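Translate sequence into structure tokens.
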Amino acid sequence: MTRKTIRIELASGLEARPVAMLVQIASQFESSIYVENGGARFNAKSIMGMMTLGLASGEEITVSADGKDEEAAICEIEKYLSTK
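Result follows.
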């Protein structure tokens, strides 16, 4: 299992479109991927779960992945969320 804390740099934070894109990115990987914030943990491949986070730019989340492509999954998610 790989875990990483990532700062959201997207100007709009995690609103509807950015969440949909994040779910698409996560769904490309075989690994189980979860996003944690404030004690809540959601499946990164679930649009409904991710929409409940409502995170703003500058906030930090912890992304964990478990599976054969876990490192690549976290790398791609970090690359997306770190885009300004």
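Note: The longest helix spans residues 16-27.
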